[in-house]
Design goal:
This protein has five helices and no strands. The relative contact order is 0.15. Helix 1 runs antiparallel to helix 2, helix 3 packs across helix 4 and helix 3 packs across helix 5. The chain is mainly alpha-helical and about 90 residues long. Pfam families: dnstrm_HI1420 (PF21716). GO terms for molecular function: DNA binding.
């Protein structure tokens, strides 16, 4: 008997802005920088890369490149992406 294992994509489960906000907050509190950039990628896919790119004022290709594994986005880009996702960066 062959078993099929479905891949799990958390982006499919981030359905509302509050889900995205909670996901990013948890990652920021418990992950490192690369974890947070990866979480931004997931959240952007959940919201729609084209829409996030438009709201952040970057091209879709640039957004994909910035958030790809090994990407090194500038702080300004990260801040724009976070804002386009309906969140803001806070230091406490």
């Amino acid at each position: 008997m062959n078993e099929t294992i479905a891949s799990f994509d958390i982006a499919e489960h981030l359905e509302i802005d509050a889900d995205i906000r909670d996901f990013l907050r948890e990652t920021a509190n418990n992950g490192d920088v690369s974890d947070f950039i990866h979480a931004l990628n997931i959240a952007s896919r959940a919201k729609g890369m084209g829409e996030v790119a438009k709201q952040a004022g970057v091209t879709r290709a640039s957004l994909y490149k910035s958030l790809a594994d090994g990407g090194n986005p500038r702080f300004e880009t990260i801040a724009k992406i976070v804002e386009s996702l309906g969140c803001k960066l806070v230091v406490s």
